[in-house]
Queue: 2 jobs
Job 1
Amino acid sequence: MRRHPLFGLGLALFGALVLTPDAMLMRLSQMDGLQMMGWRGLCMGTVMLTGWAFLSRTRRADIAAAATGFGAMIVLCQTLNSGLFSMAIASAPVAVVLFGVATVPVFSALFGWGLLGERVHLATWITIAAVMTGIGIAVFGGHTGEIGFDRASALGAVAGLGVAAVLALNFVVLRAQPGLPIALLIGLGALCSGMTGTILTGTGAMPDGQIWPMVLTGAVVLPISFFSLSFAARHTPASNVSLLLLLETVLGPLWVWLILDETASPTMLLGGAIVVLSLAVYLLNERRVVLRRRRSLG
């Protein structure tokens, strides 16, 4: 079935918005990094694999695809994404980690150009620059002098860059290999990270804290958002998906502000407004370009 040219952008926007409460739910759980990694991975993996088992009509072909190099790459990307993000948030300043993750559109553009030969338009680069500026204002603007360059900050920055790289590679590979089974591969990656987090935490310590936020984000928020974002990467360049994913970086803290009553600084609100406005202008421009192309084609 032929999709509307804006289908990929719309699906990516939906996935990014669904993901925004994730940070708030993580805070509500009062768990450490490895413990969250365990719960999130086990819940997400179980939901994704169950959905694949019930809905897939090509299970043998899916399993065969999962056993290929590209399939293993997606599983590894999902495992590393969960592990690096959980460990970074647990040990480094959140602002440093988020700024590292904010480079995902740059990695997506570079991987898309290098692996698929996709041209990155000037409007995309301008939007990437504007979005990263807004995120920099949001996460660093209100904390001048509080974030020092130490071992924890350095490791957090490296982990954030690692998360950005594996997310971007995930989107680009799925666009290049449309036959890969998204639910199966993401489910396997999530399950691997969940089992690792559970083993390192210890089964006796896993029930500590609030379990329901982790079940909600792991069983609902993450499966819906990551499936939507990954599927969207097959219908629009990975750089577009990555740009919309950055909505979670600025809207996530706003959920924390609204639900947990934590103060949102003026600079955070300003940075968030820059990100949202930049993405809105970019999406409107993309819609205008698509409609103009359709009219020219008759």
Job 2
Amino acid sequence: MFKHSARFAAALFVAAAAAASSAQAQTPVKFALDWALQGNHAVFTMALDKGHYAREGLAVTMDRGFGSGDTVTKVASGAYDIGYADLNTVIPFNANPANTDKITGVLLVMDQSLAAVILRKGAVANPKGLEGLKLAAPEADAGRMLFPAFARAQGIDLARINWQTVTPQLRETLLVQRQVDGVTGFISTSVFNIKMAGVQPSELMVYRYNDYGVDLLGSALIVSQSFAARNPETVRRFVRASIAGVRDALADPKGGMAQLKQRDPLFNEAIELERFEMVRDLTMLTDNVKRNGLSAVPAARLAASVATVAEAYNVAGRVKPEEVYTEAFLPPAPERRISP
């Protein structure tokens, strides 16, 4: 009896030592989101809480963001190893010759952009009707910066758009109070801010750029080229685990909201579930993703999208598409298939 107990104790010791060794072998990764926790971030919290990152040997620390541009800057500085940001913000960053360590997207989570012009229903009959109206947005707002691409596609005279520069906190309030005719921004943020101020989405007119002749890519995992060169396997493992998180969030959206709620007691699960479903339907489960899997970006589409954004930011000819996004860290296409 004693011999068996001794063998059992020895086995437990070996198992515990192996577990400790495995834990010690985990690679720490600092990960920054693009904004405060929202429903669409469930793809990452589920990857964390369900152990996908841990199984890939990664000890991930995830922090909220303060805007995609800020996340890009922090990843480039090395303050964070990996970030999640609007891929379009990478283009003006990489175009700046002072930024020698370029930023690259490695997993496109949103196949399309959420940038849009948002107005009260009935304000205009078509996009051309925006001429002469007053639109509010922060000066560096992605929707505002990308507006010239939308204007070119729709034949809008940019000289006839009246911009009012405001803080992010005031933007939707001015529309609700009818002090401006419309706003630009991401619909996943602006529409829900407007709803919480008392105006229902059914009362709004939304011109999302991707629906009006501008093929923009959406949000992606980003890394600096130097970090990727030093840690290629870490990037590959993080991408694989994140794909597993996307699958989990799509399979169980309510569970994803519950996990987010555990991190923020003020998190509104009902509103955030609506937000997640909007993001899912418009940008995550596009026809392209359903056909070809997650992060399927043909070279021609990438080049055209980068050229469109570079022109909007007035940095045309200064950015290489292959520096903005790469498939080098993705698993094979069959492993990226996503079921609706």
